């Protein structure tokens, strides 16, 4: 068993303002030791602050509104520095980062995607910001001997192509491959590519409401009616178990659906 929650931790969760990221932040926070520091990131500051308010009192939490579509290296480094609040990285036992923020476009065909700046913004959110934030996080803790954990929240659309979601499939696949390469270069870091299952969040309901794919809409409708959709809390709880057990090779996928019947 690994000691991921055993000592004082520095935790970063992106996409923490709702859905799966929110549940992961809350679930992890309930396991963290007093004086651990938590950095919650997303655009909606009000939501982040409400979530922080519900977390255990012994934690030191910073909520940071960041638009990952427009962010800069400096803004991300400043967020990490602000969350450390002058404390030395080596004073932590674990540094944990969960890359969860994402956005999906369910409506356009691959041939409609002809605007470079839209592609740039989309990849900034779904791929580049994770790579940059991850690098800054690693550099922050590189000389400290602190045990590092990286969780990349993946999607089945990073593994399997589908209609009307080509940009999302491309970004998710790229992000997974980035973290697999990162894992090879950093054997001392525990890297998990976590597939969270089909989860009842705004993203899923958006797909149901907006997708032009009849097959997808039918599939989601049937999953919602047959209660085969998971909750953010269930998948976050499963993730905690996976991280505690460390029963995976760094960089590999672990799939909620293979571990659970919803
Ligand atoms: N739900 C599912 O069934 C499912 C299945 C497979 C994989 N996933 C994966 O699970 C993760 C979370 O999905 P979810 O279902 O919880 O989605 P969600 O409810 O839509 O949450 C998305 C999160 O990303 C943040 N975000 C979106 N755009 C952002 C931007 N430009 N800058 C900063 N933050 C941004 C949102 O916060 P703000 O709006 O406050 O910025 C929110 O916190 C994603 O990586 C997704 O690919 C979900």
Summary of the model, kept short:
The chain has 262 residues and is of the alpha/beta class. Helices cover 45% and strands 15% of the residues. The chain has one domain (9-198, 232-259): Rossmann fold (3-Layer(aba) Sandwich), CATH 3.40.50.
Write structural notes for this entry:
It is a single chain. The chain has nine helices and seven strands; from the N terminus they run βαβαβαβαβαβαααβα. The chain is an alpha/beta fold. It has one domain: NAD(P)-binding Rossmann-like Domain (Rossmann fold). The chain has a seven-stranded parallel beta sheet, sandwiched between helices. Helix 4 (about 115-140) links the parallel strand 4 (about 95-100) and strand 5. Helix 1 (about 20-30) crosses helix 8. The longest helix is centred in the middle third of the chain and has 26 residues, at about 115-140. The two termini are about 25 Å apart. The mean pLDDT is about 95.
């Amino acid at each position: 068993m690994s000691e991921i929650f055993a000592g004082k931790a520095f935790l970063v969760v992106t996409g923490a303002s709702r859905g799966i990221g929110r549940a992961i932040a809350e679930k992890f926070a309930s396991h963290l030791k007093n004086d651990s520091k938590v950095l919650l990131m997303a655009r909606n500051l009000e939501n982040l602050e409400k979530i922080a308010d519900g977390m255990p009192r012994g934690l030191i939490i910073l909520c940071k509104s960041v638009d990952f579509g427009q962010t800069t290296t400096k803004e991300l480094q400043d967020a990490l520095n602000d969350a450390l609040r002058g404390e030395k990285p080596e004073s932590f036992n674990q540094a944990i980062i969960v890359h969860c923020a994402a956005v999906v476009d369910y409506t356009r065909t691959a041939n409609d995607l002809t605007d470079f700046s839209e592609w740039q913004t989309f990849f900034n959110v779904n791929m580049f910001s994770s790579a940059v934030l991850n690098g800054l996080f690693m550099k922050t803790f590189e000389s400290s001997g602190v045990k590092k954990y990286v969780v990349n929240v993946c999607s089945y659309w990073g593994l399997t192509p589908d209609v009307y979601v080509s940009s999302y499939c491309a970004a998710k696949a790229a992000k997974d491959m980035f973290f697999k390469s990162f894992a090879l270069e950093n054997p001392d870091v525990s890297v998990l590519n976590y597939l969270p299952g089909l989860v009842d969040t705004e993203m899923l309901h958006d797909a149901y409401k907006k997708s032009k794919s009849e097959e997808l809409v039918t599939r989601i409708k049937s999953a919602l009616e047959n209660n085969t959709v998971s909750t953010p809390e269930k998948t976050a709880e499963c993730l905690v178990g996976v991280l505690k057990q460390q029963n995976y090779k760094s960089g590999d996928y672990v799939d909620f659906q293979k571990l659970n019947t919803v």
